[in-house]
Amino acid sequence: MRSIGIDVGKRFAEIAIAEPGGRTRSGGRISASPESLSAFAATLGPDDQVVLEATTNTWPIVELLERHAGRVVVSNPLRTRAIADAKVKTDTIDATTLAELLAADYLPTVWQPDPATRALRRRVAGRAALVAERTRLRNRVGAVLMRNLVACPWSDPFGRSGRAWLAEVGLPADERELVDLTLRLLDGLVAEIELAEAGIARAVVDDGRIRRLLSIPGIGLQTAVGLVALIGDVGRFPRPNKLVGYLGLDPIVRQSGGRPAYTGHISHAGQGHVRGLLVEAALGAIKVPGPLHAFYARVADRRGHAVAIVAVARKLAVLAWHLLTDDVDYRWAPARLTAAKIRAVELAAGAPSRRGRVSGSGDARQRARLEREVERAVLAQAEAAYVTFVAARQEKDAVAATRGATGLSQGLGPARPRGGVQSPTSALRHGVNRVRAEDTPTA
Question: H helices within 205-254, ranges in order?
Answer without folding.
Answer: 208-214, 221-231, 240-246
